[in-house]
Write a structure and sequence with these properties.
Layout: E1 2-7, E2 17-28, E3 33-39, E4 51-56, E5 68-79, E6 83-89, E7 93-95
């Protein structure tokens, strides 16, 4: 399983500095929380051009397992004189894999 993401562009101009990273998260239904199961290294270069980070997670498929929920999450910070941070989560993928 691979999660890919990054910062595509910055407006009105390129920032002084920025960083981003991608994560793969698994939903733990017991406590009802998302847990990070894989994380990319941090990308410290600013766009343009579009730069991505990749998180990879290997799991063992067993048809007897219930469906589990996974999603990607991209976290970014941009510095223009003050730091602005945000994160974006992707769509949830249902898989029999843990």
């Amino acid at each position: 399983m691979t999660g890919v993401g990054g910062i595509k562009s910055c407006t009105p101009h390129a920032p002084f500095s920025c960083n981003s990273e991608s994560e793969i998260e698994w939903y733990n239904p017991g406590p009802g929380i998302w847990l990070t199961v894989a994380q990319s290294s941090t990308q410290h270069q600013c766009p343009p051009p579009y730069r991505t980070t990749t998180a990879a997670y290997t799991c063992e498929y067993r048809s007897s397992d219930p469906l589990y929920s996974y999603r990607t999450r991209v976290v970014g910070s941009i510095f223009y004189g003050e730091t602005q941070s945000a994160d974006v989560s992707g769509q949830v993928l249902q898989a029999r894999c843990l």
